[in-house]
Amino acid sequence: MNNPVAQGIADFLKHYPPFSSLAPADLFYIATQSKVVYLEKNQVLFRGGDTTHPDFYIVKDGAVGLSLTSDAEETLIDKCDEGDILGLRPFFAKNDYLMTARAREESIIYGIPIAAFQTYVKENPSVLEFLLESFASQTRNPYDKERSGKLLAENTVFSDQVADIQYFQPIKYTRNPITANPEDVVMFIAKTMANGSIGSVIIQQDQLPVGIITDRDLRSKIATGILPITAEAREVMTSPVITVPDNISVAEAQMIMLKHNVGHLCVTRDGTDNTPVSGIISEHDVVAAQANTPGVLLKQTRRATNNKELKYVREKLTDLIQNSIDKNIPISHISNIVAEINIALTRRAIELAVEKIGSLPPVRFVWVNIGSQGRKEQLLMTDQDNALVFEDVEPAQYETVKRYFLELAELVTDSLNKVGYEFSPYNIMARNPQWCKSLTDWIKQYNAWINTPAEKDIEISTLFFDFDFIYGYPAIEDTLTETIKQNIERNKKFFAFLANDTLKNPPPLGFFRQFLVEGDGEHKDYFDIKARALEPLIDAARLLALSMGVTEITNTYHRFKKLAELEPQHTDLYDECAEAFNILQHFRTEEGLVNSSNGRYLNLNELSKVDKVKLKNCFQPISDIQDLIKNRFSLTYIN
Amino acid sequence: MAFEWLTGTSLPQFWKNYVALFDDEKDGLKRYVVFDMETTGLDFKEDVVLAVGAIAVKGNAIEVGDFLEVNIKQEKFETQSIARSGILKDDNEKVVEAEGMIRFINFIKDSTLVGHNVNLDIEMINQALKRLDLGRIKNPVMDTNVLYSRFKGLPDDTQSTLDELCDALKIDKSERHTAWGNAYTTALVFLKLKRKLRIS
Q1: CATH 3.30.460.10 is the classification of domain A302-487
Q2: Smallest Cβ distance to B64: which of A36, A106, A108?
Q3: What is the ipTM of this complex?
Q4: Which of A134, A550, B40, B122 is deepest in the core (most CB within 10 A)?
């Protein structure tokens, strides 16, 4: 039927991906199924936590902001304007919306039913890829992204395929699961489950599965008092149990679980309950099969029993970073995830080391990551910098206690080294007797740094002001932080030296706005992104944050964000610095992934024109923030 | 003859169906039909309908697929109005008035009718229905002119044109010129006013 309204919408859609790759007749059909939605300014289209709509949306006029709400604070993630799509979640995930979409101005948007669009997604891989990328990044138009070389793009396709294939491969599951008889008393079954840390037991009679007892049954039937703890399995079990053959794929297993709303499937020889039990598939198996998700990596870290398994996690983590970068996930999100996994790895390494020594630590202690790990900015494999603080002990015991912790630190740093974190070149590690000492000694150390800052000491000490307590006894941490906070308050001398140190690296542009590159050495004509761009920002953030008494935030991005909050008159500059930092980190990470290096040196000739401009734009905030520091700490008087 | 009921007393089936719709209680989202007509003039006694465009609105959205466009064959040909309404090309299917009314009635069902200065349009339809020996339109009616006056707090008898409304509400006027274009533009106006006046 003739429908000029739909025709108008189809004419609009054809200009924008993914619609641009569809035939006119298909577009017209999609348009007839669509809706035209009006949003008043600030009207909410959907809210994080809402059930997903049957439609996804494309903006016709106006602008819609996407934001994440955490701790009652809305953080704007992205802004969608004309031609941008949003609300893709129902395509890929069954659960509720994560983000909130709110009109930033009066907007007209088209709602397109997912059911009508699904067929085109299946038939058209480029449409699927576009949606996946958009969904992952929620950037407005992934096609705009300047890809850094073809290789990376090909990698993306490859890794996507791997993920797809994984999904359709046979699932790995527990063979020869623990079973029980219908006459068994439920208390003993529960004990078996607790001892083996398993979530379910299959009940079988004459080797055939007749039911299953899961945590859920124990919770709803025993703990509520409906049945006594001495009940027999037959009364408690859920029956019949859902059975499957042994060669089903991850996808099928997941589907069957969803269909029957169960968390466990019983594997039998022919897939019916008329043949003996051969295994059990749990929800965890389904999740684990889809690998490379942060949750699974964290779980694997916690379950690791040796360095090899930890190393495997670190390798997987690199894949995860690569995928996240390809999918344009914001660098600050990636950093958070990577930091969490790095921390989990170190924690596990400490636990394993304690087991290896065979005796518990003599007193309480904390393990501190410093430097880039302390700032949670370590994306690529770089050095480990750490320290150890233990509780004060009697002078007589001091040496014995210290020896224990040095041994512990040696084991931990060795195993981190095996996992892939290089030893610190300056030996700033807990295994170094200088950086493994009691709380009082540490307080003295910090006092020395803060009150008598000499040029040489400052060089080292800046690292120690980016710390993250990752393992141990919180009170030690609090005491130390409090001491630092009190000492630095209005300590002009300390800040002057710190500021002087910060300004050592001038902004990286020459007089004619050309890049300053390395003049000699191995990296001649390369751009040192770490020393010339990242470090000035990191140093500036540290100095300004400390001078405002902000000791609890160590991440550069978050430091700038906090500063923007504390000093409204400079909000713009601080926000620009935070943004510039993220962009520079992105450059460095991509470079590092391509060349399997630490990404420190960029070859300017390999950068596209757009990338160069993007990079240069990051330098203005560096120059501005250095001016601000010069004025604030009156550096002219010192030099 | 195609329209036997014209001579008989019994009402045609489509009209019976239409009337019956108003007996039932409805639940779910209320359906509005926003429409506009091209006519030969402004005198409902003399002039006739040339074209009808109508589109449905539910909740905060226009349902694009729920759309009707009818062009009506004219016995009388009036060049003046043709020049004015721009229906020159004959690429659209044209139907006789009776068929046009059947399609319109079947489309609107029991929804609330919305139009700009809607009373004239309703009267034109009532006249057309009268020529078919049928009763009057039974649907509830809303007028965007009245809604706008209420939203702005203007006196009830203020007359604003659709163009003025579009300018005030920042709505694109480029689709106006045809019945369906006016209907669609009016639908956008209605969506905005509906939201601002919190009409369910």
Answers
A1: yes
A2: A36
A3: 0.84
A4: A134
